[in-house]
Amino acid sequence: MSEINDLTRGGVGKSVWSMAIPLITASFIQMAYSLTDMFWVGRLGSESVAAVGAAAFFLWLCNSLSMICKVGVEVAVSQSLGARQPLRARVYANQAALLASILAFLYAAFIWLMADHLISLFHLETSISGRSATYLRTTVPGLFFLFHNNVFSGIYNGQGNSKTPFKILSAGFICNIIFDPLFIYGAGVIPPLGVTGAALATVLSQCVVFVIFAYNLYYKRSPLGKLRLVGRLRRRFTARVATLGFPVSLQNGLFALFSLALATLAARWGHVGLAVQSIGAQVEALTWMTAAGFSTALAAFVGQNFGARDFERIRRGYRYTLKLAGSVSLVATIAFFFFGRPIFSLFVREPGTVEAGNDYLRILALSQIFSAFESVTAGAFNGLGRTIPPAITGIFLTGARVPLAYYLITLPFLGLNGVWWSITLSSILKGAVLMTWYRYFQRKKLPRAPRQSRPGKIIS
After folding, report:
1. ∠ CA(315), CA(296), CA(288), 5° rounding?
2. What does R_g of the chain's alpha carbons equal in angstroms?
3. Strand, helix or coil at 313?
4. Torsional sign, CA 421, 417, 291, 342
5. Cα–Cα distance for residue pair 310/383, rounded to 1 Å
6. How many Å apart are CA 126 and CA 109, to the nearest integer?
7. CA-to-CA distance for 273 and 293, rounded, in angstroms?
8. pLDDT tens digits for 33-82?
9. Distances in Å between the alpha carbon of 348 and those of 192, 280, 359, 391?
């Protein structure tokens, strides 16, 4: 019988850290997939970077759509286990995987049919657009793996087990490190495939991750019991997963669309503007992926303790996680502000692109702490099953970036930097507004009450 990590007992710091460290490391691994691609593709020139960057927005949309299943199953499983109902948690896990299969198929068909039209939104040179569309279509088989790998991670996270996803994702990252130069530049009988090789390397790496996840969850005995990848939809449970995950998915999806709008705006400065946003977003992910790790850890912690009705422990966990994420983001702020130029020069060599990238990081440095606070607070809301407040805050204030950017670029002393200022100003507002909302919610909806006695550790 496999033990599930009980986050309702023990020290708050230990509970949060036991989840957060593997999650943060796994987040870096996920980000490293893209950074590795950018590192090797960057050697082909900024035009190739722009081609991959344009396609990446639609993969970002795919990842956002998968959040319906991932976040839904994380919250549903954690709350079920906190309430000591492991059988219900198992049903949620099965239904989330089934829903992921359906959504993956629909999105893959959309990308295959619409790739050329989607890339044409950027108005890039014909040669760059062609490479970008080919890259996008090459990733289509990997969309099934991407959806399910996110769901499988969510199942483990809901159990309070973030170490297993970390180990599996590490194996995928190692494969990506090997495959990237192999397929991009060629070796032996393998011809150089350029940006298409980068896409193929990512797909094969995701396939490796999927196989390992599936073996552990479906062939071996899952901690939740016998899981099934194929079955019938059960409306009540599927609806619950979708209801919990949809606001987060919508927020992430619209975030990607708003970023797409900003990218088309940055593309007015040619491929340099698009390359700067593509690389800069990957570098900035050092902060928000770390914060996302803390956010997911806090969501599992809050979910289990909410199921157990231990509201005081939720309060302490939120304060503790906020301090941790704030400390990390402060380090990132200093690095981006003072070392933007050498950081950017790791990916491209053209002086104009490096200089524009330095401006990007210095401007975005000012909002890193607020971005971390927003992410952590969203995790607290998600763990409570209240996924709508973060979505509302994110959608409206992220959406405000687009008209704000259109105004700021008209100012003669800003130009392209006006796009970056719209991002950092909205991030500051999002962090401040969501934290204020959560504190109000906590005061009104989480009454202080004595902790109830409960049985021992959760056992499947």
Report:
1. 105
2. 22
3. helix
4. negative
5. 13
6. 24
7. 29
8. 666 776 777 677 777 777 887 888 788 888 889 999 999 998 899 888 88
9. 20, 11, 15, 35
